[in-house]
Amino acid sequence: MDLVAPVVVEPLRRRRCSECHQGPLERMIVEFNAPVCLDCADLGHLVFLRRGDTALTRRARESSTLWAVVVRHNRRRTRYERQGLLVEEAALARAEAACLADADARARRRSRDAARRAALDAEITATLRAEILRLFPSCPADRATEISEHAAAKGSGRVGRTAAGRSLDRGAVTAAVRASVRHVDTPYDSLLMQGVPRHQARTRVAPAIEAVLRAWRVVGAGNTRGRGRG
Fold first, then answer.
1. What's the predicted TM-score (pTM) here?
2. Cα gap 121→114, rounded to integer Å
């Protein structure tokens, strides 16, 4: 049977319980569009566990007969974001003891996982760099390294971490090189700082970008870094 955990809200403005009228409330649930304090909601005996420690959170949740999810509304992102859990105090104590008991083993596992991720990231970057130099043989070697490292940065969402980038799609790789040329070899950033709209700025620097890309595609064309500036 699927479990449905209660959702507890950290209110952004001062609220009072609709039943006992206590307040302001640090946390509450909403019943029939009205705020209810944790004591009236029969959740007052639970303790707060802030998010961040995955192992501790998982173990405390599994050990707690009753638990609730704590959220807060992010106005900028217009969504509710998880802050942590409310769990039974005894369950939290058991979870903390279990985490202390195998802390060394989990640290070693994290170290091994980090090493594997680092090796994978290095492989992605090296493969992308080789493809950049294949498509643009006159691109300076240090520049190809710079572009590949930027495009393949973990968690960036840039082309090197996309399916197209990982498969070395020609258009995706070219897009990464073009973006680098736009920022480094043209006055694009200066135009933005002058208040020129992005689309207009891109149109103005497009010829300079294409000139650099054409030169980089020619074998033995030499270092063209810096073209288009000024």
1. 0.49
2. 10
